[in-house]
Amino acid sequence: MKKHLSELAIFGGIPTFTEKLHVGRPNIGSKQILLQRINDILDSKWLSNNGPTVQEFEQQVASLIGTKHCIATCNATTGLEIAIKACELKGEVIIPSFTFIATAHALQWQGIEPIFCDVDPLTHNIDPQKIEALITENTTAILGVHLWGRGCDVEALEEIARRHNLKLLFDAAHAFGCSYKGKMIGNFGDAEVFSFNATKFCNSFEGGVIVTNNSELAKKIRLMKNFGFSEIDRVDELGINGKMNEVSAAMGLTSLESIEDFISTNHKNYKQYQQELSNLTGINLISYEDTERCNYQYVIVEIDESIAGISRDKLYQILWAENILARRYFYPGCHQMEPYRSRIADMGLMLTNTRHLAARVLALPTGTAIGTREISNICQILRLAITGGNITNEMLYQNACAS
Ligand code: T4K
Predict the structure, then answer these.
(1) SS3 sequence, the chain?
(2) Ligand 1 atom closest to residue 197's alpha carbon, by position in its atom list
(3) What's the pTM value of the predicted model, to 2 decimals?
(4) Which of 96, 172, 266, 388 is the most exposed place for a label (fewest CB within 10 A)?
(5) Is the CB of 341 under 6 A from ligand 1?
(6) Low-confidence ranges of the chain (pLDDT < 70)
(7) Is the CB of 53 inside a 6 Å radius of any atom of ligand 1?
């Protein structure tokens, strides 16, 4: 373990890790069971189009979440697009800007304008108090995001949606297996969408699901994700191809079988980070409610440069040099990316908390691919860089001048 600043790779030392340590390294589960499932799928000659593995996956997810309906899709972005279309959203939809770009694109892709709302600096979720000022006669919905798996202020959003006759959807890409006030996420609003992308703690290589308790909506979503087909030769709706394939569902089912192990590994990793970073000032590990169910799939720290003495971006460079590929999720905020940035030039000034967080947040590696040794090393690099304070900054400056 490195003891001196001069040993850091950014200053010429040997990188701590020879192999890159990724955020979002997939959890695999039982390879043997997965391969058996894939073998059976190949033998069955049924590879897609609402096959038995997809149906089983949908049933398992619905039963875990406790929703009436679960419709699997090829990914969560397409799931969001279908849910948005099925809810007949148009005009403008209010979303947080501090989210993955897919939330905004899923709207814009179908000509609906995402209206960016600021977030609460503590929860990182859409701030209900900032929503009403953004509602116009063109607003048709609020699309909340349960960022990092922490539930939005659902009651406040429901109340605003009810009062203004708006639909309420949730991008729950991060929140599979999480609860809000004791109720599983997936049961709120008109519909919610989970992601099963490879980087998610439960994955189906690529995949998503739309969950809802509204049977009429579920029926429409089912049609829409399959070209609108209601019968073999009959199309009742405008639809696209949003289907999940059988091999993805096999991976999804295999992932679900290990869900408790994945969560317990994530929780253990989270606790270790919490303990090892506890005596460092200026770096704050975001917290999760002990009373809620939580997947702990994101280890998120906020760096306060005024206390840490070093910026998030410098820490990021230091970590990358050590082959620790931390991520600046979700820098710089959707409103600062195209096609939104050039359209709403002064938006950044209004989204103060988003701008602030986008400059402070760092996601650190977790999941089954890393263990206690890796986490200790990551924390030690952070400790060296932060306790070095001005000296670290001076050395980085000399480095930059020399190159
Ligand atoms: N809404 C929200 C709030 C989301 O966060 C997301 C997706 C969506 C909607 C849309 O869901 P999907 O349509 O994707 O189902 C990654 C994921 O690709 C993306 O699904 C996820 N959010 C986002 C937060 O993270 P990138 O651009 O960071 O991906 P990439 O390729 O840089 O991978 C992340 C890290 O994981 C890298 O260090 C490499 C590592 N990795 C990745 C893959 C795919 C692996 O080690 N193995 C792998 O197989 O978006």
Answers:
(1) CCCCHHHCHHHCCCCCCCCCEECCCCCCCCHHHHHHHHHHHHHHCCCCCCCHHHHHHHHHHHHHHCCCEEEEECCHHHHHHHHHHHCCCCCEEEEECCCCHHHHHHHHCCCCEEEEECECCCCCCECHHHCHHHCCCCEEEEEEECHHHCCCCHHHHHHHHHHCCCEEEEECCCCCCCEECCEECCCCCCEEEEECCCCCCCCCCCCEEEEECCHHHHHHHHHHCECCEEECCEECCCCCECCCCHHHHHHHHHHHHCHHHHHHHHHHHHHHHHHHHCCCCCEEECCCCCCCCCCCCCEEEEECHHHHCCCHHHHHHHHHHCCEECECCCCCCHHHCCCCCCCCCCHHHHCHHHHHHHCCEEEECCCCCCCHHHHHHHHHHHHHHHHHCHHHHHHHHHHHHHC
(2) 15
(3) 0.97
(4) 388
(5) no
(6) 345, 347-349
(7) no
